[in-house]
Amino acid sequence: MELALLSILALVVVASVVAAKYTDQGGNPYPFSKKENVFTTVEASFLHLIERAIGDRFKVVSRVKLVDLIECKPGLTAKARRAAMAKAKNKQLDYVLVDKETLNIVAAVDLVNNANKSGHKAQKDWFVTGALEAAGIPHIRMKVRAGYKPAEVRAAILFKLGKPEKPESRETRNRTYKPAVLSPSQAKAMSTQLAEI
């Protein structure tokens, strides 16, 4: 009988220790509340803008981890693989463009806030850029500013992808509405303003 009581007492103590480990001071094991928004105001505005600009060509996926886009090349030692993935695992990209049909990765897009030098992605992350370049994924960095037009963003992104739009014929323009198309020299000038290399 004493053995049974000691066993029950030991189970109660173990259960108390485990419960205390997983609860906050109020006794709630899930001390969470809902955030109002998934995106900041700037991120949401740019998401709408980029979808209007290139949504007919690409799907836009937001907040993607770098390790979801890249993998280590074959032939690395286990130690080198762990070290490389450790550097990449906490990196995140603002948006990723994927092909609408195949869902293949096309490019990564990051917002850059140069107004606040200590702010979100104010400094270029050379590791992210180098990792994406090594994997053959274009890294487009767009400066945060008000007043972008969808045609400007489209021209800058397509220029960075090496796919500038060709001017359409007058007959096609009269049949369907399309955003304004910039000449290659205008697109190059615009991309210099909008996207960093």
From TrEMBL:
It holds the Pfam family DUF2726. InterPro entries: DUF2726 (IPR024402). Residues 36-160 form the DUF2726 domain. This is DUF2726 domain-containing protein.
